[in-house]
Structures are given as structure tokens and as C-alpha cells.
Design brief:
Helix content: 40-55%
Shape: globular
Structural class: alpha/beta
Strand order of the largest sheet: 6-2-1-7-8-10-9
Strand content: 15-25%
Bound molecules: S-adenosylmethionine
Order of helices and strands: HHHHHEHEHEHHEEHEEHEEEH
Number of helices: 12
Distance between the termini: 24 Å
Length: about 290
């Protein structure tokens, strides 16, 4: 790959998905895009870039998909789900007793293990949530992972990662070497394609937002912009849950950490500064090209 091709791809990925690659990540692009270009019958990444420059939206969306990291597993990091069951949900059930409805957003849900882990936690709550209207919305940039999430079908390896055996037996059906999560759990999760770089106000306001292990790929300006918009999408007494390597500290004061509950953040009501950070300024091209994703 030539340095100009690398720069072209780096900028395109930043504009379309937020992925912030440092100057030395050629190997990552090559390992993900060489198979894609070979499968498409192209001579290599150079020809792929030429096709994209020629306006091939199809190749562009395939490149963006190929460069997303979709790593996930059931009950990833365990503690956020313990907090969800033991403190977040009991508090929200108390606070919403009169309206009896709760909205949960899994903002980069990947292949479904995270939203379905939340759905299984809720199912385990049994009578405590009987008669409540509980929405779980799983969104992701990648259509491919959303299709897998909707199907809810996992390999033996995937169900062995993080999922307690009792839950596997209780909530999954085995078909050959694959396991499908039961339809009543699948029905608890709605799926939508959504790029976090774009506006998400049409989704409404949520009591709980899980936005884990996605912001780590973005630069500081993009993170701040997304935190500021997430704060508007969080109920004043709602909760934002981030991944273990992510924090708002030092970036924005629209959320603050919960004392003694690692990974949980509460909106402060502070107003975000009105000016968007320069790093996420290229809104127009992003919207235009992403429409074809
Ligand atoms: C590493 S996975 C994390 C999945 C899950 N949240 C977890 O913690 O296990 C990151 C997910 O973020 C998605 N993603 C990447 N860029 C995105 C963007 N700009 N908007 C929405 N989702 C994005 C990827 O497609 C991928 O499925």
C-alpha cells in the first residue's frame, strides 16, 4: 500500500466511522482489506482505493464494515451486568413506579451478546418487572453484525465465552453445532443501524445507555462530541455505562462517575459547550457517503 493510499483510507475511515488510526497502522488495514480486495477480484489495496475514488459506494461501505472491530461476548467484564441487576434496575424500578416503563439503549451492540445479556438479566428479574414496558434498542454501524444479532445464532465457542451454563440451558436451543437464543429473549431487543457520529436524537431519551468498547477507537474530539449528545439522550436520573478502558474524566463534565461503581456515569445537567470540536467537523461528507452504508 502506498503512503497516499494509506492516508486516503485513514481519512475516509475517520470521517465515516470515527475510527482514528495512527500513522503506523498499515498492517491493520492490510490484514483486513487485502482479503476483501482479493475476494472482489482486485489486484490489491491500490485498485480498491481507485474504485472508491471512482465513487464506488459499495466498496466504501465494505471497507468501513471490514475495519470495524466487533469483538464482544456475553456478560463482558461481568461487573457492569452485576451493577445493572443489583443497583441500576432496582433504582430505576423505584423511580419509574408510576409510569412503569424503562428504555435501555445498547449503542454499539455488535453481534448481540451485550443486549441479550441485558435481556437475560431482565428475564431473571421475573415478577419484579411483570407488567412493565421495557424497551432494549440495540444499534450498530455495521449492518452485518446487526443481522447476526437479529438471528441470535451463536457458535459453541461464542456461548462458552462469559455465558453461565445455566443460562445457556435455560435461554438457548441447540441446533447441530449452533445455539439460538430463544425467541422470547430475541423479541425483547429491537435492532437499528446507527452511526454514533450522526445525530441520534430521533431515538429519544433513555434510562440506561450501554456504550461500551466503541469510543476507544475514536479521537478525543469525537468522544467529547458523542458524550455531549449522549448526555442529552440520558434521563436526568439515568445511567451511562462505559467500557473498562473508557471514561469521561478529563474530557467533559456533562457526566460524572458514580462513586464506587466503576464504569457507571450519571448526567450532571451541565451544558455542553456549543462549539463542536474541530476533529469531528467534516459532517457534510460523512452524512453524504454514509447514506450508502
Ligand atoms: C468492540 S465492539 C463492542 C461491542 C459491545 N459493546 C461490547 O462491549 O462487547 C464495537 C462495535 O462498535 C461498532 N461501531 C464502530 N464504529 C461505530 C460508529 N461510528 N457508530 C456505531 N457503532 C460503531 C462496531 O461495528 C462494533 O460492533
Amino acid at each position: 500500500m502506498t503512503p497516499p493510499d494509506y492516508e486516503y483510507l485513514r481519512k475516509l475511515l475517520k470521517d465515516l466511522s470515527g475510527l482514528d488510526l495512527s500513522a503506523d497502522k498499515q498492517y491493520l488495514i492490510e490484514s483486513r482489506l487485502l482479503p476483501l480486495s482479493r475476494n472482489a477480484g482486485l489486484s490489491g489495496i491500490g485498485e480498491l482505493v481507485q474504485k472508491m475514488k471512482g465513487g464506488s459506494g459499495d466498496f466504501t461501505s465494505q471497507v468501513v464494515e471490514a475495519m470495524t472491530t466487533n469483538e464482544t461476548f456475553f456478560f463482558r467484564d461481568k461487573i457492569p451486568f452485576d451493577h445493572f441487576r443489583d443497583s441500576i434496575m432496582p433504582e430505576i424500578l423505584r423511580a419509574r413506579a408510576s409510569r412503569r416503563s424503562i428504555r435501555i439503549w445498547c449503542a454499539a451492540g455488535s453481534t448481540g451478546q451485550e443486549p441479550y445479556s441485558l435481556a437475560m438479566c431482565l428475564k431473571e428479574m421475573g415478577a419484579a418487572i411483570a407488567g412493565w414496558r421495557i424497551e432494549i434498542i440495540a444499534t450498530d454501524l455495521s449492518q452485518e453484525v446487526l443481522e447476526k444479532s437479529k438471528a441470535g445464532i451463536y457458535s459453541q465457542f461464542e456461548v462458552q465465552r462469559g455465558l453461565p451454563i445455566q443460562m445457556l440451558v435455560k435461554y438457548f436451543k441447540q441446533t447441530g453445532e449452533l445455539w439460538q437464543i430463544n425467541s422470547d429473549i430475541r423479541a425483547m431487543v429491537q435492532h437499528r443501524q446507527l452511526n454514533l457520529l450522526h445525530g441520534f436524537s430521533p431515538l429519544g431519551v433513555f434510562d440506561v445507555i450501554f456504550c461500551r468498547n466503541v469510543l476507544i477507537y475514536f479521537d478525543q474530539g469525537t468522544k467529547i462530541d458523542i458524550f455531549n449528545r449522549l448526555a442529552k439522550a440520558t434521563e436526568p436520573d439515568g445511567v451511562l455505562v462505559l467500557g473498562a478502558a473508557e471514561t469521561v474524566v478529563g474530557l467533559t463534565d456533562v457526566f460524572k462517575p458514580y462513586p464506587e461503581r466503576r464504569g457507571l456515569y450519571r448526567p450532571t445537567g451541565a451544558r455542553a459547550p456549543p462549539i463542536r470540536m474541530p476533529a469531528v467537523g467534516a459532517v457534510a461528507p460523512r452524512v453524504a457517503v454514509a447514506a450508502s452504508l
